[in-house]
Amino acid sequence: MPRNYSAFTPEQKEGCFLDYVALGSRRSLRTLAAKYAKETKETGARRPLFTTLSDWSKHGNWQSRVAEIDKQYYPASGEGRQEIIAPRKLDGLDTPEGKKNTKLLLRKSADILL
Q1: How far is 34 from 50, CA to CA, in rounded Å?
Q2: Global confidence as pTM
């Protein structure tokens, strides 16, 4: 029997995908679910559980979409990945404004792949 996901909008689902992409080298559904569980505990905001994220990932082709984003933004070798992700703090990308800009960039990347 299919689950009812009506509590989450398509924009929220896509936001979860972008959060997943933003995890970078730490990317996993369990890591994202743990992050959301912590946010729910701290703020009371309703966030999807691991099983929901897993279903969305499967039905939304997250793995192939993120692979395309990785190919577009990271060199073929894994060495460059650290060089690109590591400067985030130096570039101010860990600030609220930097995070917003990162999400906008990822959203544009995701739109290209749809």
Answers
A1: 8
A2: 0.63
Q: What is the per-residue pLDDT across 49-67, written as a single tens digit (0 to 9) for each? A: 999 999 999 999 999 999 8
Find out whether 21 and 110 touch, Cβ atoms under 8 Å: yes
**What's the 3-state SS for 22-79?**
HCHHHCCHHHHHHHHHHHHHHHCCCCCCHHHHHHHHHHCCHHHHHHHHHHHHCCCCCH
Fill in the DSSP letter of residue 9.
-
Residue with tokens 């930097």: 98
Compute CA distances 98 → 18, 20, 41, 89, 95, whole Å: 14, 17, 25, 9, 5
DSSP H/E element including 83: helix 79-85
What gap in Å lies between CA 75 and CA 83, rounded to an integer?
Answer: 10
Tokens of 83: 């060089």
